[in-house]
What we know:
single chain, rod-shaped, 7 strands, alpha+beta, Beta Polymerase, domain 2, 8 helices
Amino acid sequence: MTVLVHKDGVTRKVDAVDPAWLTDEAREIVWVDLDHIGEVEKRLLSETFHFHELAVEDAVAESHHPKIEPYDKFLYVILHGILAGKKAKGFETQDIDFFLGRNYLVTVHLKASRSIAEEHSVLARHGSLLGDGPCALLHRIIDRMVDHYGPEVDGLEDRLDGLERRVFAGGRSSPLRDILGLKSDIASLRRVTLPQRDVVNRLARREFIQISDALSYRFRDVHDHLVRLADEAIFLQDRVTGLLDAYISTQSHRLNQVMKVLTVIATIFMPLTVLTSMYGMNVHLPHLPFGDEAQFWWILGMMLVSSGGMLWVFRRMDWL
């Protein structure tokens, strides 16, 4: 738990939250950042800040879809940020919970957050920025969260370009697993960005008393960024769906070609099998056509003529 307090132009780090800072007359600006939830943190949320039990229950849970809920004295927001250091596992996000009050912001995240870590670093150098208020602090964190989506989306697009080259170039290795993995990542991106866009849009529409007019314009810029991300997610999902269909069609066409060749081979061997089986019967030679000492050469010639004739017919019919 990290607690930062700003008053009279000075920002300091403290060990605990003084309830006097949360009164209507308090002039302090407080940021409480919780990177895990234990009994102490639960009591802090429930007994010190007096947050609603349903909001506390959602904050303790590991994952929720992005949403925004207004309460009497605070605004509860859930947004998703890119989980740092998970590139090998593909696209992965974590939810960050925000409790925005008149003079405080409480953030809850159960895993490391790049956006919040960067804000801590900035405030360590420029502590006066906390004096801009909790809403400005909320905007800076959300703006960083959305900015971190850009490189990840570019990475998804690069993976898709590479898979398209693999599919249309052919090759023995199957890209199906990679296509399905990418499809899952893009679906996760779309599943997060669409509701997140709607949440930030409500912050930009000046629906809540905690959001000032000046900051609503800043949230509008973040909303525009999320609109572009949502459009890219839809476009990427259409591309990967088309790529999957193209790969399946390519594999079906290749299978049809293989089956056609195998069918031609089997058809050619059918008369050969009939000839060899007939002349392989235990029957006296004079009773069979060409049943003399040279019957081996007669049968071999008949096989060659039969095979050659069938190949000529197949080629004339464009089967080969």
